[in-house]
Amino acid sequence: xxxxxxxxxxxxxxxxxxxxxTFCSFGFKSYISSVNVNKYRIALCKLRVSSxxxxxxxxRWNGTPRNERICRFCNxxxxxxxxxxxxxxxxxxxxxxxxxxxRVRPNMFETVEYSRLTR
Length: 119
Known about the structure:
mainly alpha; 9 helices; globular; 0% strand
């Protein structure tokens, strides 16, 4: 139990992985065994733990302020939420893979609440 508390404390105190902090909980994640294609499972894991090449992380490495880590397609901050739910370049992919609940007026609060209900 002490390990889990220390882990939660380190996560909450971190200045990175904002998206991960929103959804994190200690324990096995079912998507690891339910996504059967290895490259998709790896991509999902990397996105979840902020080990990716979106500007929110890549620009952090060179000290760019968070509000300047801009998506080259939409001129908004390019974080994981923007990538998954807002960026116009990925709208066709969202229509294919995401329920309409996530596509119509997306917001972080409803996404978090819906994900908790469907766990």
